[in-house]
Design brief:
Helices cover about 80% and strands about 0% of the residues. By secondary structure, it is mainly alpha-helical. It is globular. The chain starts with a helix and ends in a 7-residue tail after the last helix.
Length: about 220
């Protein structure tokens, strides 16, 4: 069954890579139409270390969620070794969602795209609070229920993120100030990426169900 987890992880990674340029081009379509930017400038994102750092972070978070799904599918016990990484990474994902909303609202109000110490402190506090919440869930819930609650948090949080980030991004792009729409674009990116993470465990489950229906005598390996 582990091979299906790798398939899902690969699909998640490919989805992020494939969607990168289209999302950037749609988000900054006005700049393309005015010839302020060209497609070649967008390609440079693949040479930036923050992009790859975020890409790896999202894949590791997805892998941690799939690890629990694999253990439950194979009827193996889920230990603290499995729970702690999920708590740390999932709470960070939720903190990024909350932070993306704050960044979008902050830029809309102040027309400022620079991070300051208060925003960083807010992100850290949000990470800690979500970590406490998820840790308590991990101690009280069965692995399947624990994973499902986190998945729902990811999906609902990403929807809320996009509902805030997309309108504020459109507003920012129609304003005349330096780097308009950067923070709101970051919010859109976080929302889409974490929404993809929320689909991973469910896609894995569908793979396993389909495999078992086609190979009833197989153990899924």
């Amino acid at each position: 069954m582990k091979k299906w987890a790798w398939v899902v992880l690969l699909l998640c990674g490919l989805s992020i890579l494939i969607l990168t340029l289209p999302v950037m081009m749609v988000s900054f379509a006005d700049a393309l139409f005015r010839n302020d930017m060209n497609g070649k400038e967008f390609v440079t994102v693949f040479t930036c270390w923050p992009y790859w750092a975020g890409f790896i972070l999202f894949l590791i978070a997805q892998a941690a969620l799939l690890d629990i799904r694999v253990n439950t599918a194979e009827k193996r016990p889920v230990t603290k070794r499995n729970i702690i990484p999920v708590v740390l990474l999932s709470s960070l994902m939720m903190a990024l969602l909350v932070g993306g909303i704050v960044l979008a609202i902050y830029e809309t109000i102040t027309k400022d795209v620079a991070l300051n110490k208060w925003l960083i402190l807010f992100l850290s506090a949000s990470w800690f609070i979500w970590g406490v919440i998820f840790y308590k869930w991990g101690g009280k819930l069965e692995p399947e229920s624990f994973l499902e609650k986190i998945r729902k948090c990811f999906f609902r949080g990403s929807i809320l993120e996009l509902l805030v980030a997309i309108p504020t991004h459109i507003l920012a792009r129609y304003r005349n100030y330096c780097c308009a729409g950067f923070n709101t674009f970051v919010g859109i990116v976080f929302g889409l990426a974490i929404m993809l993470c929320s689909f991973g465990p469910g896609v894995y489950f569908l793979f396993i169900q389909r495999w078992k229906s086609l190979h009833p005598d197989s153990n899924g390996e």
